[in-house]
Specification:
The protein is α/β, with parallel strands linked by helices. It has nine helices and five strands; from the N terminus they run βαβααβααβααβαα.
């Protein structure tokens, strides 16, 4: 029987560089001998969750905060049962672009639904699955906004939120990191990508030795 795999999640405000880090981390873990590493994103990763993603990012749709939290939780529940749990049970490592902490910061803190209420909702959705390590990319909001603008794509519904919203998201993440410093490792996402990747590898080094 294969040893259970590891779940590494990557978090941060929009424009922090999550996708860049996740891609680099997958390659780096493979180079360091991890036999199977899978990259997934949220919401998404399975057909149902991808359809939910299309709803929650659509700027043409009005979405109540509670409905938004429930949609993210539903997509997450399907991802867990269809992909995450089978992969982890089979010994694979998963690098996941966003997970429960995103809902705690965005809907719990920034939308004002309450972190603990959103945590309870997601504990039900995930069956209590928690990351082995979370890499929190912290960046100046102006830098994140500039990176978003350089992508050359139309901002989605959440990306169109005003500065105070993203400030509240960042504060929400910082509060989470203070309560779980062993799981959540804070990285300076204003540094060059190679330096961020090096810091991320240092933050998961103990998992490679376990």
């Amino acid at each position: 029987m294969a040893a259970r795999g590891r779940l590494i999640t990557v978090e941060g405000v929009d424009g922090a560089g999550k996708t860049t880090l996740a891609t680099g981390l997958v390659e780096a873990l493979r180079a360091r001998g991890v036999a199977r590493v899978e990259a997934l994103r949220e919401p998404g990763g399975v057909a149902l969750a991808e359809r939910v993603r299309a709803l929650v990012v659509d700027p043409a749709l009005r979405c109540d905060a509670r409905a938004e939290a429930l949609l993210y939780a539903a997509a997450r529940a399907q991802l867990v049962v269809e992909r995450l749990e089978p992969l982890l049970a089979d010994g694979a490592w998963v690098v996941l672009d966003r997970f429960v902490d995103s809902s705690l910061a965005y809907q719990g803190a920034a939308r004002g639904l309450g972190v603990e209420d959103v945590r309870a909702l997601n504990a039900f959705a995930t069956g209590g699955l928690e990351p082995d390590r979370t890499l929190l990319l912290e960046v100046e909001l102006a830098t994140g906004r500039a990176r978003q603008g350089s992508r050359g794509v139309t901002p989605d519904r959440l990306e169109r939120e005003a500065e105070p919203f993203f400030a509240a998201v960042a504060d929400g993440y910082a509060a989470l990191a203070k309560t779980e410093p062993e799981r959540i490792r804070r990285l300076d996402a204003g540094s060059p990508p190679a330096e961020v990747l090096a810091a991320a590898l240092e933050a998961v080094a103990d998992l490679l030795l376990a």
